[in-house]
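User: Fold this; tokens only.

Assistant: Input:
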Amino acid sequence: MKTILLADMDAFFASVEQRCNPALRGKPIGVTGPAHRSVITTASYEARRFGVKTGMSIREAKALCPQLILVTGDNDKYTHICTALKEVYLSFTPVVEVYSIDEAFLDITGSSHLFGGPIETGRRLKAEIQRRFGISATIGIGPNRLLAKLASDISKPDGLRLIEASEAGPLLKDLPPEKLWGIGAKTAEKLKRLGIRTCGELASAPAGLLRSCFGVMGERLRALGMGVDSTPLHADQEEEGGPGGTKSIGHSTTLPHDLFRRSEMAHWILRLSEKVGSRARRHGLTGRTVTLIMRYRSFETFERRRGLGAATNDTHTIFRTAMDILSSTRLKEPVRLLGVTLCGIEQADTQLALFGGEDRRAGLLRVMDMLNMKYGPSTLTWAACKGESPHRGIISPAWRPSGAHRSL
């Protein structure tokens, strides 16, 4: 039986800011993006006691906690620590999946005995993270990813919990399904309409009923209710090799003000397309589908996608496709957020192009990527991107040291 450990940093962005600035320690802080319309990205536990939550507007957060200290997030600090954390994980096991910027799954099946067993491994990992970075982590351990995640969720903050396979049944019996990783609010509501309000009821529900309501996902839901999860870890060294773990490469940005005219959105979409294309090229990847994500002023979010004739990582191909999607979309209110994602990821074809123009285009992109890698993002960029000065949003939670994203 496997032994999976989840290391989940506690209020990661806020904890890093408190570590870097001692004056913030013990105080309610909210990390935000630099734009005036930003939302709370992470709140310290001191702020959470007042009800401040991730995704809350600054106005709402201040109403709940007038003494809240707002701190503009620093992506460089967060990504640096995430990358360094991976080095710590690898000192405990070679099988590590950095799931997001503040979470990592470790398969310690074959290595925990070297550190005194699963619990002692978790204890030593927590101590090393605290010693090196001055931040706390909650450690969840179980026979699979699902139970390791549950162990972490119910032990936050600064906790350590092991859930044995034999404990799963009694522990899940009265637990609401939405408390399980992988079951969202909409699915939970649908389950309630079927009279299923606990994981115990989900585990004993007729398979035929679940299949008729949820299709092939019905059987997986029933397994989750039993605490069963066969999803393997995708070790990062495998993902860097290409599409084995990377499903999509995406970037999004909250606009400095709501936009309704497509012409005003164009340079933001080009900027996002360049980020996506650059990251794909850096890792030798291409994609066959472009997805455009839009969020209205009302926070309603939707996406549209379009397939490509051939796999690409060319900035302008991604941009033109995203703009085609925008042109064919009827907007019903102003847009506050835009995102561009390249999906259907595969290894890039290194065969020489048949036409000289394609070679020149590829050469130009290589030079741009090289200069931007050496001197910083947007050192060399497209003239159309210069219309409005960029603002650095908070990094996507899906960021990984390998550069691969789970999704937007």
